[in-house]
Design a protein that fits this description.
Elements (H helix, E strand, L loop, with lengths): L1 E5 L3 H8 L6 E3 L2 H7 L3 H11 L3 E5 L5 H12 L5 E6 L2 H12 L4 E6 L2 H9 L4 E4 L1 H6 L4 H14 L6 E4 L5 H10 L3 E4 L1 H8 L2 H14 L6
Parallel strand pairs: 1-2, 1-8, 2-3, 3-4, 4-5, 5-6, 6-7, 7-8
Helix pairs in contact: 1-3, 4-5, 8-9
The structure holds SN-glycerol-3-phosphate.
Length: 216
């Protein structure tokens, strides 16, 4: 499973990238607004740090404007993936843009049928928001399992499932078990995944025991 990082914070992206396990970055308008930076320049900075898909969201609501915005954003860098929210206009735009070879991440997916339609429209990725589904009392993992089952039943579907709105390390394990192609993680979740109290205890014990001989 590929691991993306879900933030627009450059320091966090650099720290995550230094681990050597990051395959891409996802951003959204809320994450960029938190940083108080200019959108395009931040996306360009991210492209300099991570060599992988970098999702940048488009916000236009009318078809012509949305297509024009997506073409503009896609031209920023070859690694930019345009993020388009699921909607009727979004689907129309995805069909046009995917035919032009533009990589698309269809975001705000909350049902299998939305994912299926986005895949049919040529989305490179679909982003189910599992945390927000769980927050509403439904089962986000069930959505990932069902998408994975349907996508693998129909080999003509090349779209990858990009599990988003991940809230904790257990979510990562579960989306991996459910067959997600990618999980995009808040930095805090990524760094939590590294640690385990028994690892810390083990390192302490090995260090102590190593005092009895000269280090190599
Ligand atoms: O980037 C989209 C998604 O990961 C946002 O997650 O925590 O705001 O539901 P969250």
């Amino acid at each position: 499973m590929k691991i993306f990082i879900d933030t627009a914070n450059l320091d966090e992206i650099k720290r995550a990238a230094s681990l050597g396990v990051i395959d891409g970055v996802t951003t959204n308008p809320s994450l960029v607004a938190k940083e108080g930076v200019e959108y395009k320049s931040r996306i360009m900075d991210i492209c300099d740090v991570v060599d992988g898909s970098i999702s940048a969201e488009c916000i236009s609501l009318e078809l012509d404007q949305l297509c024009a915005e997506a073409r503009r954003v896609a031209a920023w860098h070859p690694n930019v993936t345009v993020k388009i929210p699921m909607s009727e206009v979004g689907l129309q735009a995805m069909a046009i843009l995917s035919a032009e070879g533009i990589a698309i991440n269809c975001t705000l997916i909350f049902s299998v049928n939305q994912a299926l339609l986005a895949a049919k429209a040529g989305a490179t990725y679909v982003s189910p928001f599992i945390g927000r589904i769980n927050d509403g009392g439904a089962d986000g993992m069930q959505l990932i399992r069902e998408c994975a089952e349907i996508f693998s039943t129909y080999p003509e579907i090349k779209t990858e499932i990009l599990s988003a709105s991940i809230r904790n390390p257990r979510d990562v394990t579960e989306v991996a078990l459910a067959g997600s192609h990618i999980a995009t993680l808040p930095p805090s979740v990524l760094f939590q995944m590294i640690n385990h109290p028994l690892t810390d205890l083990g390192i302490k014990a090995f260090l102590k025991d190593s005092e009895s001989y000269s280090p190599v």
